[in-house]
Design brief:
Length: 253
């Protein structure tokens, strides 16, 4: 079950930059949502510009594979936002739009999940962190399902089981572990400040759901999985286009 987890005695090179990205992401999410709680549409556009500038700055230090993953994550998540929020009304943003900061925000969230998963802290203590995630997520799902905390949340329980499948069967469990922490933070801060609100009844299944659903990290894991799987095909396709157009770099003789 843990065959894709890192070895227990793994040696890891400490990267201070990774912790900077993590600290920046958690802080930026909080600040962005605080500003958005009173923001006009114009201020949301300004937050979007700041989001794109931040994302571009952060991915400059990443390899082309991670950059491709971020591009795919932003594209897939943006399409999903418009479908799930605007079309299906599964959740609704404060101004009933998809704020301009959301697409780059998804890129930053995805990158943070990747970065958390490769830190020495997560790699060395992967199994202990997994136990913590399973216990916290499981307790949250049970309490929400029984309405002890908030409204009844059937969708959250289903999503948490899906998350466990990603975590224990997927080939990138460290990314999914990282996703649990950053996405839980995003959802708790975002919903508490009113940046968005989840519908009490999921329009697709008619099941009850919390605000946020307890297993909401599973939705973000879907974005992560698509980004991981599609990165190599996208890079190969891009390389073929560059070759076809004759834009590849020539070796100096």
């Amino acid at each position: 079950m843990l065959k894709y987890f890192p070895p227990i005695d793994i040696e890891v090179n400490h990267k201070k930059r990774d912790y900077f990205i993590v600290a920046f992401a958690f802080s930026a999410v909080t600040l962005c949502f605080l500003i958005d709680s009173v923001a006009s549409l114009e201020l949301q556009y300004a937050l979007g510009v700041a989001g794109w500038a931040s994302l571009i700055f952060l991915i400059l230090g990443e390899c082309k594979y991670v950059r491709a993953q971020v591009f795919i994550a932003v594209t897939f998540a943006t399409i999903g936002e418009n479908f799930a929020s605007i079309f299906m009304a599964g959740y609704t943003y404060r101004l009933e739009n998809v704020p301009a900061f959301v697409p780059p925000g998804h890129g930053i969230v995805y990158l943070t999940a990747v970065v958390l998963g490769r830190t020495d802290l997560f790699l060395k203590y992967a199994r202990k962190i997994t136990v913590f995630v399973v216990l916290v997520g499981g307790i949250w799902s049970v309490l929400a399902l029984t309405e002890i905390i908030g409204r009844k949340d059937e969708i959250g329980t289903i999503l948490f089981f899906i998350y466990l499948l990603y975590l224990f069967k997927g080939r990138s469990p460290m990314v999914y572990l990282g996703a649990f922490f950053i996405t839980t933070w995003v959802e708790l801060i975002g919903t508490s400040l009113g940046t968005w609100n989840w519908a009490a009844i999921d329009p697709a299944s008619t099941l009850t759901q919390g605000n946020p659903p307890s297993g909401v990290a599973a939705w973000y894991c879907l974005v992560d999985a698509v980004a991981i799987v599609c990165a190599v095909p996208v890079l190969n396709a891009f390389s073929k286009v560059i070759t076809f157009l004759g834009l590849e770099k020539k070796e100096v003789q």
